[in-house]
Amino acid sequence: MPTLTHFRLCPYSRTARLALAELGVEVDLVEERPWEWRPEFLALNPAGELPVLQLDGTPPLCGIYAISEYLAEAPAAESEDEPPIQILPGDRIQRAEIRRLADWFNGKFNREVVQELLQQRVYTRLQPEAASAPDVDFLRAVRANLRYHMSYVSYLADNRRWLAGEELSIADLAAAAHVSVADYLGEVPWEEHPVAKTWYARLKSRRSFRSLLADRVPGALPTAHYADLDF
Do both 68 and 116 map to the same domain? Predict the structure, then answer.
């Protein structure tokens, strides 16, 4: 069986998990703490970044972009609950828009929100040598960035059936993965963004999301509504 090396709250790992689940690909999950820089993991991916997908008889697929592009060309398995999807559907223009939005969330959203929340709210609790308390002023700036991004999600969701167009795509999965980390930590002001909330509830109710909603990180338990499909 394929193996996915991941960290439960890594948004890139979560994107890969969602994509694999949507395509009906079962994997063994192996957790890696990315800040530890273990030699064994660096031998697997010299960049030291998650996720890494290992398939039988092929070199490791390192990083969410390589994994996404590989999965985009893989046939989806049939499902009794939901029809199979293509994570990069449509023509060349449509796929370019999907890639643009996936890059927005994997790049800009991650830099300005998620990686900072993880560092301040999670990694500091799991690293004995790290600062013990989050930087309140820094978190205030991150929360302002989050509101900006959630407004953009609302704009996209209000004008399209899914974020990149008429079909669910890797853009939605990447966005939901990043938002889910902020939601796990109770940082998303859902009352200010009802359209984004409706979009996220649609993703949250899909079968592919179940394993994410079951995630728990010692020392950083989720907000009360995290696994509630009705918020």
Answer: no
Tell whether 108 and 184 lie within a shared domain: yes
Tell whether 101 and 183 lie within a shared domain.
Answer: yes
Domain that holds residue 67: 3-72
Q: Is residue 221 part of a domain?
A: no
Per-residue pLDDT tens digits for 141-154: 999 999 999 999 99
26 and 120 both lie in a single domain: no
User: What's the pTM?
Assistant: 0.94
pLDDT tens-place string over residues 72-115: 997 655 556 666 689 999 999 999 999 999 999 999 999 999 99
Tell me if 164 sits within 8 A of 122, measured CB to CB. Answer: no
Residues 112 and 177 in one domain: yes
